[in-house]
Design brief:
The protein is an alpha+beta fold and 751 residues long. Among the domains are: 43 residues, no CATH class; 76 residues, Alpha-Beta Plaits (2-Layer Sandwich). Helices cover 49% and strands 13% of the residues. The strands form six sheets. The protein has a seven-stranded mixed beta sheet, sandwiched between helices. A three-stranded antiparallel beta sheet has the order 13-14-15, covered by helices on one side. Strand 18 and strand 19 form a beta hairpin. The longest helix is centred in the middle third of the chain and has 31 residues. It starts with 7 loop residues before the first helix and ends with a helix. Bound molecules: adenosine-5'-triphosphate (ATP).
Length: 751
């Protein structure tokens, strides 16, 4: 089904009709729209893979996208990318908590919306309806990006490389999901990080290796998570599935006995067996060659993080200073990390500072000690995640003799807008602005530029350009006189001039020791109030006009999250641990802090051992975009038809909103009026020239092409002749080809 022939209402009608028939994939111009079925659909597996490979099936599918990426990689000798994204605006807030209390009352904890509860518990039906209406009109995560990425990987992996590498690539999924996914209110298996997997191919077109890059893991979840949500799956899987010896070695308790896990009152996921998942994860680790010893170290770190949360403090004076309480938690942490209780106490209750060139030791208050403990837990977990990805990459980089050709699959968080939007949404939405720019560039800008360059008659199709919003985030300009001053920021990844964009203002404020979230918000208002994409709000808030809608951000916690400081004392503490894995984490952190010394912009205050989170993210995104720019992109837009994670419920408004947000409707418009299929005159003349019945006066490819089109009476409104290419309306090239092939001329030729 090609939506490109259709008007907007019929696009919507068709999507809904197809969804009701389990046809969850639809093409909108070059973009594949995937509507989450929330149930098993009979569209996958070897039979389907074979059919798409042999071209006996050509209906829209992730397999078809992966297949054309593969073919184009081989024929054009250009790297390809499959960019999977979703766009939603989601609620949190009171109704969600109301819903949680409803399901708890029904004794159906962890189930987002049990269908049997709707019918049998009449008193709750009204609440259900209100919630349903509310949720359907806002939309949320769980659109199906990760599943789609896995389906694309499955297709590519089915090619077989003979070395088993494709199986290894698939087995990275359970590991990354265990350590980087969590149950949220919106999705039982929500990815809390972005992921790019680059699959490498040999000269014969076989998979010979892969490389994974991850982005911005949500580490705050390790120490804090909302009611009804869970922390990372691995915590629950380890506690449920560790064999007795490991359980004893790690001194594991039940999940509801750990403070970090207890706070959200949610321990299980309907239909998921954590113990079984643990076995699948260890099996996957074996397959990607993570040694038994390393696995034990990994699980020791996971257990250490859990036990750190249980380390408590005793107040030792009337200034609220503390020491750690020496009990099971502290003892277990020191055993698992390989440090002494004294060192653990020192790092959590005291801080070394340099004041006026003099070294002093400051005692920590209860709040400071608790923050230090949580920062250590978050850093340990984030380092562990990074380390695991590194190990996986080592294992996947087997095929050194590769062609340099690759297909990258990008599965990155979608646009987010909740009741309360914090630093995480700020970064995620910035990433989405970047990706939307990439989408616009390829589907609107470059497309239309090509028409103009080739001199065809073309009335420009307007599209929502998000350049202004990107500038608000990234660029530096002088407010005086309102003149934009395009100063380089990205070459080095660091600003070289006075910062006046959202990111650089945030970074600058993060380096002032006395700055607060309020001074940051005021600074934004002072510098950016004249910007049309920015609006200062009361107090600590500000609003950004994103391409997908306005989002109000609350700056509470922005500075702290952006600084993401782990005090040098904590790094040195990890370096002193006897186990090799915390030592490795420490060296990595120290290496990062060394690199920073060469950066002129960041002041050398004692704590600035790390690049700020926003700047690191900006650098990562910049590299990502550079990488994607050198590929031919294939876009998949995932749509969530309801927020209840249930099959057969299709919220028209919700779908429409997502289609609008992600530019699909504009793509349909441009595909209808545009000429998406094209072929150079040379290629067209070479392919069909032999069909000409009469000699053409001039043998140049353009004249031959035009003569062929005339001979077969191809309607003039179906194509345009450019300087270098023929441009065909949607699908017309194919119809044209069919026409040519079924013509008498070809029959004559064959005879
Ligand atoms: N093609 C599919 N077939 C069957 N079920 C699917 C499919 N795609 C998604 N789902 C269901 O939807 C759920 C959410 O999908 P997924 O985790 O891929 O969403 P996501 O967009 O990656 O979400 P998040 O942004 O929270 O990570 C899956 O756990 C699965 O139950």
């Amino acid at each position: 089904m090609q939506l490109s022939y259709l008007s907007e209402p019929s696009v919507l009608y068709n999507l809904q009709y197809r969804y009701s028939q389990d046809m969850i994939y639809t093409k909108a111009g070059p973009v594949l729209v995937a509507v989450n079925p929330f149930k098993k659909v009979a569209l996958y597996g070897n039979e389907y893979i074979k059919a798409y490979r042999n071209k006996t099936m050509d209906s829209p599918h992730v397999y078809a996208i992966a297949d054309s990426a593969l073919r184009e990689m081989k024929s054009d000798e250009v790297n390809q990318s499959i960019i999977i994204s979703s766009h939603y605006k989601g609620p949190t807030g009171i109704l969600k908590y109301a819903w949680l209390s409803v399901i708890q009352k029904l004794g159906l904890e962890s189930s987002p919306l049990p269908t049997d509860a709707i019918g049998t518990h009449q008193p709750y039906n009204l609440i259900y309806l209100i919630l349903f209406f509310y949720m359907v009109h806002h939309g949320e995560s769980g659109a199906g990006k990760t599943e789609t990425a896995k389906i694309a990987m499955q297709y590519l992996a089915s090619l077989g490389g003979g070395s088993g590498i494709e199986y290894e690539i698939l087995q990275t999924n359970p590991i990354l999901e265990a350590f980087g996914n969590a149950k949220t209110l919106r999705n039982d298996n929500s990815s809390r990080f972005g992921k790019l997997i680059e699959i490498h191919f040999s000269t014969t077109g076989r998979i010979c290796g892969a490389m994974i890059q991850t982005f911005l893991l949500e580490k705050s979840r390790v120490v804090q998570c909302a009611v009804g949500e869970r922390s990372y799956h691995i915590f629950y899987q380890l506690c449920a599935g560790a064999p007795t010896t490991l359980r004893e070695k790690l001194n594991l308790k039940k999940v509801d006995e750990y403070k970090y896990l207890k706070q959200s009152c949610c321990y299980s996921i309907a239909g998921v067996d954590d113990a079984e998942m643990f076995r699948a994860v260890t099996e996957a680790m074996n397959i990607v060659h993570i040694s038994k010893e390393d696995q034990d170290n990994v699980f020791a770190m996971v257990s250490a993080v859990l036990w750190l949360g249980d380390v408590s403090f005793t107040i030792i004076d009337n200034e609220n200073h503390v020491e750690i309480t020496v009990e099971e938690a502290a003892e277990t942490v020191s055993r698992l990390l390989g440090c002494s209780i004294e060192d653990l106490n020192l790092v959590l209750s005291k801080r070394h500072m340099k004041v006026n060139n003099e070294n002093i030791v400051q005692k920590l208050t209860l709040t400071q000690a608790t923050d230090t403990r949580d920062a250590l837990a978050k850093a340990l977990y984030a380092s562990l995640f990074e380390w695991l990805v590194e190990q996986i990459n080592k294992s996947l980089s087997v095929g050194k003799r590769r062609t340099g050709r690759s297909i990258s699959i990008l599965d990155i968080y979608g646009f987010e807008s909740f009741d309360k939007n914090s630093f995480e949404q700020f970064c995620i939405n910035y990433a989405n602005e970047r990706l939307q720019q990439h989408f616009n560039r390829h589907l609107f800008k470059l497309e239309q530029e090509e028409y103009v360059e080739d001199g065809i008659d073309w009335a420009k199709v307007e599209f929502e350009d998000n350049q202004d919003c990107l500038n608000l985030f990234e660029k530096h300009w002088e407010n005086k006189g309102g003149i934009y001053n395009w100063l380089i920021t990205m070459d080095s990844g660091f600003p070289t001039k006075k910062p006046l964009g959202l990111l650089s203002l945030l970074d600058e404020e993060s380096t002032f020791p006395n700055a607060t979230d309020l001074t940051f918000a005021n600074k934004l208002k002072q510098h950016l109030d004249t910007n049309s994409c920015f609006r200062g709000e009361r107090g600590k808030a500000f609003t950004v006009r994103h391409y997908a809608g306005e989002v109000a951000y609350d700056t509470s916690g922005f500075l702290e999250k952006n600084r993401d400081l782990l005090h040098m004392d904590s790094i040195q503490f990890l370096a002193k641990c006897k186990l090799s894995i915390p030592q490795t984490f420490a060296s990595k952190m120290l290496a990062q802090s060394d690199n920073l010394e060469s950066i002129p912009y960041r002041p050398s205050v004692a704590d600035s051992q790390k690049l700020s989170v926003a700047m690191k993210f900006k650098g990562q995104l910049f590299q990502l975009m550079q990488r994607l720019e050198s590929t031919t992109p294939h876009f998949i837009r995932c749509i969530k038809p309801n927020n209840l994670q249930l099959p057969a419920i299709y919220g028209q408004e919700l779908v429409l909103q997502q289609l609008k947000c992600c530019g699909v409707l504009e793509v349909v418009r441009i595909s209808r009026s545009g000429y998406p299929t094209r072929m150079t005159h040379q290629k067209f003349a070479r392919r069909y020239g032999f069909l000409l019945l009469e000699d053409v006066a001039s043998q140049d490819p353009l004249s031959v092409s035009v003569a062929i089109l005339h001979q077969f009476n191809i309607l003039p409104e179906m194509y345009q002749v450019g300087y270098t290419k023929l441009f065909f309306r949607t699908g017309q090239n194919r119809q044209c080809t069919d026409l040519l092939l079924s013509s008498k001329a070809i029959n004559k030729y064959i005879q």
